[in-house]
Structures are given as structure tokens and as C-alpha cells.
Amino acid sequence: MVVVYSSHYDITFFGVERLHPFDPHRASRAWRHIRRTHGSALLKKSLRVDRPASLGELRLVHSQSYIDSLGKSANVAAALELPFLQRAPAWLLNWRILRPMRWAARGTVLAMREAVRNGLAMNIAGGFHHANRDSGEGFCVYSDVALAVAQLREKGVIASGQRIIYVDLDAHQGNGVCHQFRQDKEVFIFDAYNESIYPGHDLAAQERIDCDMPLEQGCDGTEYLEKLQAKLPGFIESAAGRNHSAIGVYNAGTDVFAGDPLGGLKLSSDDILARDLFVVRQFRSRGIPLVILPSGGYTKESFRFIADTAAALMNADQLK
Ligand SMILES: [Zn+2]
Question: Over the range 123-154, which residues count as b (16 or more CB within 10 Å of their CB) and which as e?
């Protein structure tokens, strides 16, 4: 597996962590944790991101009016759902918050490319599944999955007619991805989510899901894994079609953790690792390349779940 990372991923906006439960240093903490367990072996199996996604590239999946709107602090504050940011200068928000997110979006493009080349890759940031063509919400500004698919199609890395199998196991429903691929018949969407939480109002997005797995508030790991094991293999099998010429995208949000303040589900850290390894094996056993994105996860320990999955996947025995 290739791990894709940049030291530019961290968000360093003064005190933002006191006003939102997310850990702005989650990416670098995850990276250091993997490095502690894997040492120099990680450097051979990793790729540093070369630059942030450019505004020109982002126009492939976002409207010009939306990109322009991010020049105003009030609009950035609304997308990030952090009203206090309205008072900050727009240049500072761009530098300290939006730019790290553009690095993460570029990382997703590179990780998807590496997945096609090597079979399995993981970006240590990204999975902004609430971002839409004309708007951002739920702490998601740039639609990195749509960007990666659009750029790799443009470059011919993803062939015409090749299918994308998107599996979203973040606790929140991936409404932005559903909207981005609303008309795209080559994209197949599986989504398991807590139906009691944001963005439950977005019924138009839910209609786009090809195979859904709505969960009740407080669903535990045993029930979660049973449902996933019952539903996911058949979905991948039918989505891949006969020749299995497909690419998998796994949104591996860790806000399903029992201690997460936003997810409302009750998986343990062992359940999360079991879930991630199960999903990866489903793709690997069918020879379908897979890119993994960490998406949501809002505890001070969330970095550890991401790192544990990465470390396990770097050990080839875990893939069998
Ligand atoms: Zn989430």
C-alpha cells in the first residue's frame, strides 16, 4: 500500500480546535504514529504531495461563482459551519484553512492514481463528502473525490466506461458525492450512515444511493459489522460487473467511534479496524484497486484509528 501525505495538511488556525470538535493536527499525528510503528519502511511506501490542487483544476468540479464566493470570509465560515470565522480576514482563512484543504484534495488525486498503479493507496486527509458543485457544508469545501475522478478521467488513467465503486462508511451520509455524481452512470454508491443526524434532510442525495445501509442512533459494532457483511459483497459484485474493470473509493470516516461527539454510533476501535480490513479485502479479493480516505472523525484519538488501519494495511498478511 502507498500512503499519501503532506505536512501541509494540518490546519493551523489559532484556537479553531477549541470551537469545533475536530483535531486540526489529525493528519500529522496519524503520520507520526504510522512512522513510529513502521520506521523507515514507511518512507519507501509513501508519497509526498507535490502541491495543492489549483483553482483551475477545482473548476472541473466546482462552479466559478462558488470558487469566487470563497473570497469572502462569511461564505467560508458558512461552509465550515464556524460562524466566528466571519470576522477573520479572507486571506488568513485562505492561507490557514482553505489551502491545507487544497493540499488534501491534491493528495486524493495522487492517492487515486497510486491505487490504479499499485492496487491500494491511502490519503491521510480528504474525503470531503459534503462538498457540492456550488456550495460547501459540513466542514467540506472542496469535492476531492469528484476532482480525482474528473482529473484521472481527463488523463486517461481511468478509462472511458470504467466503473467507480464508492463506499461511504462515515457516520454521516455523503450527500455532496451523491450530488456530484447525480447523472454519472459509471459511479455506483454504497452508503452506511446514521439516519438521525446531519444531513438527514437531504432526500435528493439519498435517492442517488445505489445501495444504502441506514443505521439507528447508537448502533453498535456487532450489528454494524453484521449488516455490512450482509450487504457490501453483493453490492461490489454487481457494481463491478462481469469484467471487474472498476476502481474502488472507500470513505473510511472514523466518526462511527463510540466516543465521537458527532457520529452517534457505538463502534469500538477494534470494530473500526475490523470494518476497514473487511472492506479492503472485498476489493482486493476481486482485484479491484482501492483508494482510502479518512473523512470525518472528531475525537482526540481519531488520528490513532487512521494510523492503525494504515499500519495494518502496510502489513501484507492483513490483506489476505
Ligand atoms: Zn462524518
Answer: bbbbbbbbbbeebbbbbbbbbbbbbbbbbbbe
What residues contact 243, with CB distance under 8 A and at least 6 apart? none
Give the tens place of pLDDT for each residue, 102-116.
999 999 999 999 999
The CA 198 to ligand 1 mean position distance, Å, reads: 9
Tell whether pTM > 0.85: yes
Lowest mean pLDDT among 199-208, 280-289, 311-320: 311-320
In 10 A of CB 67, how many CB atoms? 15
Enumerate the active-site residues: 130
Q: What DSSP designation does 188 have?
A: E
Classify residue 27 as exposed, middle or buried by CB count within 10 Å of its CB (0-12, 13-18, 19+).
Answer: buried
Q: Which domains are seen in the chain, by residue range? A: 2-64+102-319 (3.40.800.20)
The closest alpha carbon to 246, from 293, 274, 297, 282, belongs to 282
How far is ligand 1, taken at its centre, from the CA of residue 126, in Å? Answer: 12
**Cα 138 to ligand 1 centre (Å):** 8
Contacts of 68 (CB under 8 A, 6+ apart): none
Q: Which residues, including other chains, have CB under 8 Å from residue 1's CB and lie 6 or more apart?
A: 45, 118, 119, 120, 121, 122, 310, 313, 314
Amino acid making up residue 10: D
